[in-house]
């Protein structure tokens, strides 16, 4: 930017005696300003509108009860629990695999061609749309493995879906660990696994946490991959292991069901505003972790 | 001492094996997904006939005389993608230019946060807001000008999709624009070009492949999006027209999978296979664009 302002005097002169070029610049600048305004105001209006229409419909009862056909009341506690169970289960599966894969790529792999293939397949996984994950998860986990439509089938599907996020962020974090740390550890006679366990992983933990938060964000927002794997159930199941085997809709899936099947827009707005708040919180925490990371460096 | 070393050796070897296995998981996952889609998608295509399936114009999956032609879905997905590009790319690219070349750091940080939030909002939320705000609005227009009493149509879907592809276009193009060597721009200034001329005649052309990658990434998102589109597009198997309710490849699957059986169900898997092929094609283009970008 600085170097650009140095040339300002000259460009000003050009502007003055060349009307055509001047209007070209002004028109483009106005167009850019317009586009930025559209993009930024879109998100502002979107979030404001959802919170405005939704927050009023959130009550203590709404958050802490299940849907009751008898009393005709709607509560989203089961959906909150299912979202929570699904995130926990998915992380339990995907974290060891994802972090392990990143460690292999960064610390063990010597065959560059294999590394390229693994990185290519990771990119491919990241590009597959969630409805395809839903379809394959339904065929493979719900039917093939006989898990039926359940939280466990949903968690397995989400594990593959969020694998690229975990692998990529962990890989980036591992790359920032200086080579001298590794050399120092080896010089002291540490074995590779010991070095990874005590030096590499602790020094890249912030980066890994960032990846976990990003992955949680995707899981909270996911719906197409879950509709046919975890299902749309809304019964209250407090036992975690029992919940693994039952069909349960997360908050996003519940929003879809209430909006399209029930046409209950008040409940939909309330769930949408909860989702928006979660997204805001996750975004904020990613920023916090990153800031901490920068300070340490 | 010796036994301790030996045990250490075993642990090392085991861990190496474990990490190797974990490294293979992504490959296994891609192979499994491809194999499952091909195995489950081919039977219906074989039974219906390759050309009848891909180029048939009528999808009537539940009638007594069923017909499984997915051309309407393919064309709808294609038009939806083109529409989203026409609206989304200018807005996204201009915002990226603003972030990379014009805004001061503080304003850039604010805009950046907005873009990140745009990326984080769940697709059902986009779909829902589209359903509540956009569809009634489009309905007014459709009724007034064309006498069509529905606002859930291709246009609504295109508008929602163009918003949803903004974050990928903005962030990838921005990175590409920031990476343009300063020398190029300074040389342009030295030759007397204005800032705008420099941006549009030097910076943007040299960031071409990165910008292409951003657009292709956005295209992938637009083609793969299911839920948001499901809520605003009307879900009728029409040939695409701007003010007609339509069905995308993704929503054709979502709409019927829960109750489908027999050949209808298998045909849904075939649609999944077609969608997967499109996505793989896009991935290959993306890879190509990124590689060219790295080479400069």
Brief account:
The complex is a heterodimer of chains A (about 300) and B (about 300). Chain A folds into 2 domains: about 1-55; about 60-295, MetI-like fold, CATH 1.10.3720. With about 300 residues, chain A is mainly α.
What does this structure look like?
The complex is a heterodimer of chains A (297) and B (296). Chain A has 297 residues and is mainly α. Chain A folds into two domains: 2-57; 61-296, Orthogonal Bundle (MetI-like fold), CATH 1.10.3720. Helix content of chain A is 77%, strand content 0%. Chain A has 14 helices and no strands. Chain A has helices at 2-6, 8-16, 19-54, 60-64, 77-108, 112-127, 130-144, 151-175, 179-187, 192-203, 205-221, 240-244, 251-262, 265-296. In chain A, helix 8 runs antiparallel to helix 11. The mean pLDDT of chain A is 88. Chain B has two domains: 2-51; 71-295, MetI-like (MetI-like fold, Orthogonal Bundle), CATH 1.10.3720. In chain B, strands 1-2 form a two-stranded antiparallel ribbon. Chain B has 296 residues and is mainly alpha-helical. The longest helix of chain B has 47 residues, at 2-48. Chain B is 80% helix and 1% strand. In chain B, helix 6 packs antiparallel against helix 9 (208-224). Chains A and B meet through helix 2, helix 3, helix 5, helix 6 and helix 7 of A and helix 1, helix 3, helix 4, helix 5 and helix 6 of B.
């Amino acid at each position: 930017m600085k170097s650009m302002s140095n040339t300002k005097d000259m460009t000003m002169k050009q502007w003055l005696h060349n009307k055509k070029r001047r209007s070209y610049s002004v028109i483009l600048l106005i167009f850019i300003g317009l586009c930025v305004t559209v993009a930024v105001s879109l998100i502002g209006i979107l979030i404001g509108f959802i919170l405005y229409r939704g927050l009023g419909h959130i009550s203590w009862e709404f958050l802490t009860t299940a849907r009751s056909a008898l009393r005709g009341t709607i509560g989203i506690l089961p959906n909150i629990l299912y979202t929570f169970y699904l995130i926990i289960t998915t992380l339990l599966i995907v974290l060891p695999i994802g972090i392990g894969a990143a460690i292999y790529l960064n610390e063990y792999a010597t065959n560059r061609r294999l590394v390229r293939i693994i990185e290519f397949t990771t990119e491919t996984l990241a590009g597959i749309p969630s409805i395809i994950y839903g379809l394959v998860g339904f065929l493979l986990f719900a039917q093939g493995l006989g898990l039926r439509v359940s939280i466990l089938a949903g968690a397995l599907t989400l594990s593959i879906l969020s694998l690229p996020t975990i692998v990529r962020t962990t890989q980036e974090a591992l790359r920032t660990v200086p080579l001298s740390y590794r050399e120092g550890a080896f010089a002291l006679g540490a074995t590779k696994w010991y070095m990874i366990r005590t030096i590499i992983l602790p020094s890249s933990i912030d980066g890994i946490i960032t990846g976990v938060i990003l992955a949680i964000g995707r899981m909270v927002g996911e719906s197409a991959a879950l509709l046919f794997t975890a299902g749309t159930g809304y019964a209250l199941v407090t036992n975690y292991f029992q919940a693994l085997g039952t069909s349960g809709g997360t908050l996003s899936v519940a929003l879809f069901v209430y909006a399209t099947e029930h046409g209950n827009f008040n409940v939909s707005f309330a769930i949408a505003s909860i989702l928006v708040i979660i997204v805001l919180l996750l975004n904020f925490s990613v920023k916090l972790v990153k800031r901490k990371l920068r300070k340490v460096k | 001492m010796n036994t301790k070393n030996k045990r250490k050796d075993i642990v090392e070897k085991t861990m190496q094996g474990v990490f190797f296995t974990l490294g293979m998981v992504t490959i296994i996952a891609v192979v499994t997904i491809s194999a499952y889609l091909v195995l489950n998608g081919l039977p219906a295509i074989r039974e219906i006939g390759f050309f009848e399936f891909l180029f048939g114009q009528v999808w009537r999956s539940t009638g007594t005389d069923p017909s499984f032609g997915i051309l309407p879905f393919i064309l709808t997905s294609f038009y939806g993608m083109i529409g989203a590009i026409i609206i989304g790319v200018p807005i996204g690219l201009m915002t990226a230019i603003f972030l990379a070349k014009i805004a001061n750091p503080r304003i850039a940080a604010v805009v950046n946060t907005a873009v990140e939030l745009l990326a984080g909002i769940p697709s059902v939320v986009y779909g829902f807001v589209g359903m509540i705000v956009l569809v009634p609005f489009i309905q007014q227009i459709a009724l007034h000008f064309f006498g069509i009493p529905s606002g859930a149509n291709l246009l609504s879907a295109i508008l929602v999709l163009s918003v949803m592809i903004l974050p990928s276009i903005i962030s990838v193009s921005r990175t590409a624009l920031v990476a343009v060597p300063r020398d190029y721009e300074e040389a342009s200034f030295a030759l007397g070009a204005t800032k705008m001329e420099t941006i549009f005649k030097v910076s943007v052309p040299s960031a071409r492949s990165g910008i292409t990658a951003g657009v292709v990434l956005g295209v992938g998102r637009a083609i793969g999006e299911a839920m948001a589109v499901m809520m605003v597009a009307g879900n009728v198997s029409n040939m695409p027209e701007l003010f007609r309710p339509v069905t995308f490849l993704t929503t054709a699957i979502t709409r019927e999978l829960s109750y489908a059986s027999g050949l209808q169900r298998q045909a849904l898997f075939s649609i999944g296979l077609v969608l997967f092929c499109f996505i793989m094609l896009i991935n290959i283009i993306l890879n190509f664009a990124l590689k060219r970008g790295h080479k400069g």
